[in-house]
Design brief:
homodimer, 248 residues, alpha+beta, 4-stranded antiparallel beta sheet, 3-stranded antiparallel beta sheet, 9 helices, 10 strands, DNA-binding
DNA sequence: CGACGTGTTGAAGGAGCTCAATCTAAGTGG
DNA sequence: CCACTTAGATTGAGCTCCTTCAACACGTCG
């Protein structure tokens, strides 16, 4: 955890521009944010539930997930994150972390001091709006997960999350939804879908048996995207990747 | 849907101040937002999934909920809202509504044009931050619901949602967590917890049998708050009602 | 009065869980 | 290079929490 580099924040600038057109001086302000970077190992904590917020974290490479624990120790994974995601913007404004963030793979993370995020939003309101927009999209994904977990059966849940992951990878130019490495263990996938790892295993095998996907360890090949999409009751509009209707 | 009144937006100003200290001119800007109000009947739609965003909606009185539908028609209720809540800030920034909002009881709603919300955030960045903060708290509640539905058993889920509702009522000065009218049918409560109405019914009766609550139609009397809190694995920190650690 | 929405109850069935064994691949140390 | 370990994936068998279906109770409202 060291080195103060200016150009590290490219992925953030790119993400924010996806949400809102930014002028050169605004982009510059984003890129000039002070930050320190760190290399994170798989399963290492980036944020711990209860932490007092001192900085926000941006994922520069690799994958991470958010988790909460129930009183009896059961784990719930409520989000998966990839390059360019602010894994906890909320720490910039809320007092304490209400959940943990953990690395899924080798990852690089940039830490940006809390007050600089707030200062950025105050000095450059358009950037503030872009970050707010980002939070709104996050919230939309949480709602879809509530639906996924509460009202879809096991097979559909798994198919849905596979669709979402591929779609998001593609959206940030990190691969194609037709073939990718899914970076979670079956136990983590279980915690992300409200199932057990045993049942996740059976459902993955069932999806393969039906010819929707082909698997080789964590490598997923989507043999029939339309069928997987149908099986997963997947409609990407909740990801708000299109910006139709968003002017100004 | 008519009448253009200035002082209608008091509940919004109060809510935003809860999240961030605002100066008189900032407050005035909030209160001066143009808006139209409407009386809404129970189960009437306030926003429909797929709607193109033209305005944001503020709940002035009564209760409402957000829902999404699965492909097979199953319903998921992902949030309950009360006085002062912006039931769809996301419409101000995102292009289309990714879910519906429906009235739970008789309600009064203020519609604020999309561009005025955006304009407010641009002209008064502190107000923009307050609205962003509001979205972050919303997202925190969604995460807790994901945990609630995915990793808690039926009795715990119901107890948890009863705790949350009472706590939030109290926070906005609309009652006490020890006794309130819970404005949902058992079927709606089922859709908010990922259960069936039959099982919700049995769990409510079990909570009463154990002496945690007393019921009379929708009226809930919390006989033993601490026990209910324990039974519901409830820890209110995710509501971010305290502002400890939040300076400036 | 009949119809409807909501709540309550019983009985039977099933989707997913639990427990436990086995398998595989990738280290790790000798 | 091989014995040993470990994390994760796979499989089977039995069980349970919750669902499904169906009936009935109750209050309200036309």
């Amino acid at each position: 955890m060291s080195t103060l580099i200016q150009s590290e924040l490219g992925p953030l600038a790119r993400k924010l521009q996806l949400w809102r057109a930014l002028e050169p001086p605004e982009l510059e302000a984003v890129l000039r944010l002070p930050c320190t970077t760190a290399a994170i190992r798989p399963s290492q904590y980036i944020v711990r539930e209860g932490d007092i917020a001192k900085h926000s974290c941006l994922l520069l490479s690799g994958f991470a997930f958010r988790q909460k624990l129930a009183g009896d120790g059961e784990r719930s994974i409520c989000a998966i994150h990839m390059k360019g995601d602010m894994v906890d913007l909320q720490n910039s404004l809320l007092g304490h972390a209400d959940h943990s963030v953990q690395a899924l793979t080798e990852a690089r993370v940039a830490f940006i001091p809390r007050e600089d995020i707030v200062g950025l939003a105050l000095a450059w309101p358009q950037v503030g709006l872009a970050m707010w927009h980002d939070t709104l999209v996050d919230a939309s994904i949480f709602r879809e997960w509530v639906l996924n977990i509460s009202r879809r059966d096991a097979l559909t849940r798994i198919a849905h999350i596979l669709c979402e992951f591929g779609m998001r990878l593609e959206a940030i130019g990190l691969g194609t939804r037709h073939s990718y490495v899914f970076p979670m263990t079956q136990e983590q996938l279980a915690d992300a879908t409200g199932l057990t790892s045993v049942h996740v295993n059976r459902m993955l095998m069932e999806l393969a048996r039906r010819g929707l996907i082909e698997r080789e360890f964590r490598q997923v090949r989507v043999a029939d995207w339309d069928a997987l999409r149908r099986a997963g009751d997947f409609d990407e509009s909740y990801l708000h990747l299109d910006r139709a209707g968003v002017e100004q």
